[in-house]
Design a protein that fits this description.
Elements lengths: L9 E4 L5 H12 L3 E6 L3 H13 L3 E6 L5 H15 L4 E4 L14 H23 L7 E5 L13 H21 L5 E7 L14 H6 L9 H12 L10 E4 L6
Parallel strand pairs: 1-2, 1-4, 2-3, 4-5, 5-6, 6-7
The protein binds NADP nicotinamide-adenine-dinucleotide phosphate (NAP).
Pfam families: adh_short_C2
Protein name: SDR family oxidoreductase
Keywords: Oxidoreductase
């Protein structure tokens, strides 16, 4: 019998109801982790993600928690730890982007990017650490736009993902004494509802990439699962691109 690499581990993924997050939930569960994941609006989608993971022999549990609210994040972490008896892996995936020149951005759009992409990540990590044993894993989902922002209209989104990259580096030092690694996965264009492979930006994006296709949520899930596993103990403080050569 083969042992799955994350057997016995517990995980919380924020924003697991769709897109990249759903791919991460599916892979962590398939690799043996007990996975809780949050959603805000897509309750039916969240149920379907959980049902698919269970049908594939895994454990996945949806939790309604809006990343804009501190109490929701605290409750999601606490519920995960209570239900599974601890928390080994935190994946901060929930994120939003509003893409427009800075002169056109509304205050609600700016607040949403700062709150969901940055503030909620800080809060989730702070809460998770109360439950995480030595050897835990924190994996943030940043963006390649932290390093490369070739098109107008991406500046504030890029700022939020740059903040995630900086947070990752600082925390790596803070948490290394506990054997907890902190990494930042920076996807390039991934085919999701937020950035469809046949969407309005696709031609421009493919024009600056080495590969001729968008990535998939499953490809991000596979890399996150590797970082969450025992073979990745020496990787920490890194921002790691999974981007089809977007930065090549
Ligand atoms: N797709 C790409 O090309 C790409 C590239 C680089 C980085 N990323 C990053 O990858 C992550 C996922 O992106 P995606 O493309 O999968 O986006 P998506 O398809 O729009 O999915 C976003 C996910 O985040 C959740 N979410 C949004 N607001 C939330 C809130 N307030 N509270 C809790 N959950 C919330 C959504 O849940 P509900 O539907 O339930 O609200 C959904 O599950 C983001 O951090 C994004 O910046 C994506």
């Amino acid at each position: 019998m083969t042992t799955r690499p994350l057997e016995g581990k517990t995980a919380l993924v924020t924003g697991g109801s769709r897109g990249v997050g759903a791919g991460i939930v599916a892979r962590l569960a398939a690799d043996g982790a007990k996975v809780a994941f949050t959603y805000a609006r897509s309750a039916d989608r969240a149920k379907a993600v959980a049902a698919e993971a269970v049908a594939a022999g895994g454990i996945a549990h949806p939790i309604h928690a809006d990343s804009r609210h501190e109490q929701d994040i605290e409750a999601a972490v606490a519920r995960t730890a209570d239900r599974f008896g601890g928390l080994d892996i935190l994946v901060n995936n929930a994120g939003v982007g509003s893409f427009a020149p800075i002169t056109d951005l509304k205050i609600d759009e700016i607040d949403a990017m700062l709150t969901i992409n940055v503030r909620s990540t800080i809060i989730a990590i702070r809460e998770a650490l109360a439950h995480m044993d030595d050897g835990g894993r924190i994996i943030n989902i940043g963006s390649i736009n932290a390093d490369r922002t070739p098109f107008p209209g991406q500046s504030v989104y890029a700022l939020t993902k740059g903040a995630v990259s900086s947070l990752t580096r600082g925390l790596a030092h803070e948490l290394a004494p506990r054997g907890i690694t902190v990494n930042n996965v920076q996807p390039g264009p991934i085919d999701t509802e937020a950035n469809p492979a046949d969407g309005p930006f696709a031609t421009a994006l493919l024009g600056v990439m080495a590969t001729d296709r968008f990535g998939t949520a499953a490809e991000i899930g596979a890399f996150v699962s590797y970082l969450a596993g025992p073979d990745a103990a020496y990787i920490t403080g890194s921002s790691l691109n999974v981007d089809g050569g977007f930065t090549a």
